[in-house]
Amino acid sequence: MRRRRQDGQPNTQEKRLIIHADDMGMSHSANRATIRAFETGAISSASLMMPCAWVAEAVEWIKKNPSADVGLHLTLTSEWGTNRWRPVAPVDKVKGLLDPQGYMWRSVEDVVRRASPQEVETEIRAQVELALQMGLKPTHLDSHMGTLYADARFFEAFLKVAMEYRIPPMVFSPTPEVMLMAATRGLNYREVYQRIEAAGLPRIDSLNPQYAPGESKDKHRQRLHDYLRTLTPGVHELIVHLGMDDPEGNAITGGWGYRVQELEILQEPEFKRILQEQQIRLFTYRELAKLYNYRM
Q1: Which CATH number covers residue 34?
Q2: Domain that residue 114 falls in
Q3: Greatest pairwise CA separation for the chain in angstroms
Q4: Which residues contact 253 (CB under 8 A, 6 or more apart)?
Q5: Helical axes 256-267 vs 269-277, angle rounded to 10°
Q6: Residue 173 near residue 205, CB atoms below 8 Å
Q7: Tens digit of pLDDT for each residue in 66-116?
């Protein structure tokens, strides 16, 4: 068992980084890229979008590779032009999540305006249940496009479902940046954090949700390298978005090339060299749960 400080936080001076690929299951291209990244050691974690068309393919690979650290990317929006998806829950139970065509809304703002907290809870619970029925054991829960962090009522539903199923939610230490972000969404994070801490939920110290389609590859590479060089001791998460350079991916969005180059950059020897130089250890949500002695 790891020694802990008197304030209950893990005692470590190690730099630990979860390199986390979002959007597994969204497309065959995203699946291929995520699997490639796992197999080459470019990422340490990923999360799966249960409402999407290619989830069965992703599940098949995860079940054959049970050591892969894969959680659920709880999904309440469907943002792309023609690659759309619908809720997992019965539509009559989540009408506020549906746009006029019967798909999920494209924007976070529309979900906040039109969906009730009960509908949100119903849908994310249905996504967790579907994953369990398919034989998965998610290592964590996070939120596509950050929708569950965009409204204090949705965040409460997120915590409720995560704690009920004992699947660690992506939550954060109360840094000034987190406190400010929460306040803009009407959330008293200091009060919420007391419950997070009392429940022993694992938490990360910082999140880099970087996503900049249209950025040149050189600038993209330099930004990621600079990020690694600024990491301090603690547990951090870098969110990445990956894709293969194929017709399917490029048909989803004109910005798909960003995902292709992100996969390439993560696999470059220089990226791995900087990780070693900076003494950064790749980390997973499974390890994070163990660090906090959290029983899943």
Answers
A1: 3.20.20.370
A2: 15-291
A3: 54
A4: 80, 81, 213
A5: 60
A6: yes
A7: 999 999 999 999 999 999 999 999 999 999 999 999 999 999 999 999 999
